[in-house]
Amino acid sequence: MGANIIDGNAIAREVRAELRTRTESLEKCGIKPGLAVIIVGDDPASTIYVRNKVKACSEVGIHSEVHNFPKDAEQDEVQRCIRELNESPLIHGILVQLPLPQHFEANRVMTSIAVEKDVDGFHLCNVGALVTGNTVFSPCTPYGVMIMLNKNHIPIEGKHAVMVGRSNIVGKPMALMLLAKGATVTICSSKTRDLATHTKSADILVVATGIPRMISVGMVKPGATVVDVGINRLPDGKLVGDVDFESVKEKAGFITPVPGGVGPMTITMLLCNTIEAAERAHDVTK
Ligand code: GUN
């Protein structure tokens, strides 16, 4: 029997409908949540991500503004802009699109964002808060994965979760969130020796390596939940994940497709964090 396909588009739609009702409640109190996005340079992928974020904001009733800087901008100039946005009553969330140009120190830029406006959860204080289980804002992609597991009633406590990928944006926070829910967590990377030995013992396997279809059917335990965070464009233009979906879906219990899996959830959770920030700023309970 084939796996249950976890439909990220459907879950994102459902969550966004809930978010819409929260922005409507805020509107009744004269509050419009606001998100500022800072983009440095003209990386084509970043430009598309930012455009999608702006569109999603307008769909759920969030004010958004984009601050563009040329790729040779000075870090000080960007940090000055962040400081102004920190003070702005119209802005509740600030996001600096990554990657930044080589001459930027990303951690310094991130830590110039006010912690209570750091809707990406990348400020070092928010990273520390996540480590100690006092989450302020959860990083959007792993947060989206947790919602997908929850909506599908996939048990986490006591299960073995294997994270393949160790990035600051996905792998590390994902592992911490699974750990916080009581999973026994193994963190691997594409370089891990005998990777299949680890992945084959996973009840929940999350993959974020950026290597197209690296997880083959032989690396997965029958009935496992397989979450594919990868999104890779092949030379023929086809979009694929880090998991060989066609074969793995015959063995897994649950699986996320690419596209239409984790992808739509990332922006949804950014919207959620922005609304949360506005509610907190104005002491509104949801
Ligand atoms: N670049 C790739 N993913 C992300 C993300 O989630 N947030 C930001 N700020 N930049 C990114």
Number of DSSP helical runs: 10
Query: What radius of gyration results from the CA coordinates?
Result: 19 Å
Largest sheet: 6 strands, parallel
Q: How many structural units, i.e. domains?
A: 2
Name the helix and strand elements from N-terminus to C-terminus, one letter apiece. EHEHEHEHHHEHEHEEEEHEH
Second CATH tier, the architecture of the largest domain: 3-Layer(aba) Sandwich
- CATH 4th-level superfamily of the largest domain: NAD(P)-binding Rossmann-like Domain
- Counting helices, strands and paired strands, the structural category is alpha/beta
Q: Give a list of the ligands.
A: guanine
Point out poorly predicted stretches: none
Lateral arrangement of strands in the main beta sheet:
1-11-8-7-5-6
CATH topology name of the largest domain, in short, is Rossmann fold
Task: Please describe what this structure looks like.
The chain is α/β, with parallel strands linked by helices. It has two domains: 97 residues, Rossmann fold (3-Layer(aba) Sandwich); 123 residues, Rossmann fold (3-Layer(aba) Sandwich). It is built from ten helices and eleven strands. It has a six-stranded parallel β-sheet. The protein has a three-stranded parallel β-sheet with strand order 3-2-4, sandwiched between helices. The protein is globular, with a radius of gyration of 19 Å. The mean pLDDT is 97.
